[in-house]
Amino acid sequence: MRASLIQIAVDEGESVNSRRSRVSSLVREVAERERPDLVVLPELWTTGAFAYESFASEAESLEGPTYEAMAKAASDAGVWLHAGSIPERDAAGDPSVDLYNTSLVFSPDGELAASYRKIHRFGFDKGEAVLMGAGSELVTVRTPDAAIGLATCYDLRFPELFRGLVDAGAEMFVVPAGWPARRREHWTLFARARAVEDQVYVLACGTGGTHAGVPQAGHSIVVDPWGEVLAEAGDGEEVLTVEFDPAKVAATREQFPALKDRLLGMDVPRR
Questions:
Q1: What is the pLDDT, as a whole number, of residue 268?
Q2: Predicted local distance difference test score (pLDDT) of residue 270
Q3: All domains of the chain, ordered by start, with CATH?
Q4: Helix, strand, coil tally for the chain in percent (to 5)
Q5: What is the pLDDT of residue 232?
Q6: Given 34, 58, 88, 118, which residue is catalytic?
Q7: Which pLDDT does position 97 carry in this prediction?
């Protein structure tokens, strides 16, 4: 399997419409040049993950302009496209919570294969944590190469979510993010930890640039089921392309069957 992570630099001087058009073209260019099976974009790349004041004004319906642009890009390129996440406005849902941080995954024919609303919102009672609602469902999507578990940025700090994805059959985690530079070491640590403890590949795609004055970590990373870093980006806009064997997941679990020894979280007697 071949995957390309496109680490977008969010320039505050670039309009959302301009960035949407630029990224659509970039998906096509990368697909033509790198020939990946899967392309991955970062979290909230239309607005910037820390541009809280833009969430409401730039929010769109699930099938809004970013959906349309990314569906066409996936179809034109003939790739599976994890289009990162958007600020989604759900006018038909709970009237008290109408914004969500929602990831979109498209098949090579441009159809929506899955969407995931971020469960763990960052902010500690401010920012995303109060402006957006929490998702409530674990989501996996099966491609011809692997079953992919979906998570977003701050989710990386909550291993129980990833164990749930493993129980749902995930062999790979794809994690778009807008991770701040000042906690970059945590980003790398968590990506490797989730890979090792769940014996999966982790494809974590971050952003470059600065969001609302917050420098971004970049350093998109691909980790194999033994925790080996197969590739890692720098901190600017960059395309990270990696080829790997999804069969290594089953082989790793066979060679070192730690998941079979799980007790907590399973049917353990309690008293």
A1: 45
A2: 40
A3: 2-259 (3.60.110.10)
A4: 30, 30, 40
A5: 98
A6: 118
A7: 74
Q: List all residues 6 or more positions away from 154 whose beta carbon is below 8 Å from its beta carbon.
A: 118, 120, 121, 122
113-137 core/surface letters (b: 16 or more CB in 10 A; e: else): bbbbbbbbbbeeeebbeebbbebee
Tokens found for residue 20: 């949407």
How many helices (H) and strands (E) are present in the chain, helices listed first?
7, 15
The answer to whether 43 is a known catalytic residue is yes
Query: Which residue positions in the chain have pLDDT lower than 50?
Result: 268-271
**Among this protein's residues, is 260 annotated catalytic?**
no
Q: What pLDDT sits at residue 271?
A: 44
What is the predicted pLDDT for the residue at 12? Answer: 83
Among 43, 58, 128, 171, the active-site one is 43
28 neighbors 81 (Cβ within 8 angstroms): no
**What's the rounded Cα separation, in Å, for the pair 84 and 105?**
8
Q: Active site residue: 34, 58, 88, 153, which one? A: 153
Quote the pLDDT of residue 265.
73
* 72 a catalytic residue: no
**pLDDT computed for residue 98 by the predictor:** 86
